[in-house]
UniProtKB/TrEMBL annotation:
<feature type="transmembrane region" description="Helical">
    <location>
        <begin position="54"/>
        <end position="71"/>
    </location>
</feature>
<keyword id="KW-0813">Transport</keyword>
<feature type="transmembrane region" description="Helical">
    <location>
        <begin position="136"/>
        <end position="159"/>
    </location>
</feature>
<feature type="domain" description="Major facilitator superfamily (MFS) profile">
    <location>
        <begin position="12"/>
        <end position="163"/>
    </location>
</feature>
<keyword id="KW-0472">Membrane</keyword>
<dbReference type="InterPro" id="IPR020846">
    <property type="entry name" value="MFS_dom"/>
</dbReference>
<feature type="transmembrane region" description="Helical">
    <location>
        <begin position="12"/>
        <end position="34"/>
    </location>
</feature>
<keyword id="KW-0812">Transmembrane</keyword>
<dbReference type="Pfam" id="PF07690">
    <property type="entry name" value="MFS_1"/>
</dbReference>
<feature type="transmembrane region" description="Helical">
    <location>
        <begin position="103"/>
        <end position="124"/>
    </location>
</feature>
<dbReference type="InterPro" id="IPR011701">
    <property type="entry name" value="MFS"/>
</dbReference>
<dbReference type="InterPro" id="IPR036259">
    <property type="entry name" value="MFS_trans_sf"/>
</dbReference>
<keyword id="KW-1133">Transmembrane helix</keyword>
<dbReference type="GO" id="GO:0005886">
    <property type="term" value="C:plasma membrane"/>
</dbReference>
<feature type="transmembrane region" description="Helical">
    <location>
        <begin position="78"/>
        <end position="97"/>
    </location>
</feature>
<protein>
    <submittedName>
        <fullName>Transporter, major facilitator family protein</fullName>
    </submittedName>
</protein>
<dbReference type="GO" id="GO:0022857">
    <property type="term" value="F:transmembrane transporter activity"/>
</dbReference>
Length: 163
């Protein structure tokens, strides 16, 4: 385990809270936009379900494994790998040329999110050795994820063109 004094508390907490928000938001952002996505890319109901469930399934299935990776390889390294994969998968999904490409992108986003979430919590623990400060940082991290459930569908709707 790396030293808790290695990371600056404020930037680490901010990065972890933003990551928690993005992971939570990405679960729900496609729900409102799904009819428009299907109209543009094609696909049936089963494919629509995979756009939503591909993310959730891989995220949930790999979460414990990713936490173990963060313990073995270091939270900072796993967080960085997850963030790079998240950015690449987001870009891939944004430019998906078919529903199957979007499903692949969403599955990659689920893998990236599984890497990011436990590592972000570990980074907060490492950067905040004082229990009171750690409690405050973890509450910000949790607020990031919780607020995403409201913002995800709203942002998905705002990004969906009106026909």
């Amino acid at each position: 385990m790396q030293s808790s004094t290695r990371y600056s508390s404020v930037p680490t907490t901010a990065a972890a809270a933003i990551a928690s928000f993005l992971v939570g938001m990405d679960v729900l952002i496609v729900n409102v936009a799904l009819p428009t996505i299907t109209a543009e890319l094609g696909g049936d109901m089963a494919t629509q379900q995979w756009v939503v469930d591909g993310y959730s399934l891989l995220f949930a299935a790999l979460l414990l494994f990713a936490g173990n990776l963060a313990d073995r390889w270091g939270a900072k390294r796993v967080f960085a790998a997850g963030a790079v994969l998240f950015a690449a998968a987001s870009l891939f999904s944004a430019f998906a040329w078919s529903m199957m490409a979007l499903v692949v992108g969403r599955c990659l986003l689920g893998v990236a999110s599984a890497l990011i979430l436990p590592a972000s919590m570990s980074l907060i623990n490492e950067a905040n050795p004082d229990p009171r400060r750690r409690a405050w940082a973890l509450s910000l991290w949790g607020a990031g994820g919780a607020s995403a459930s409201a913002v995800g569908p709203l942002l998905g709707g705002l990004l969906t063109p009106i026909h």
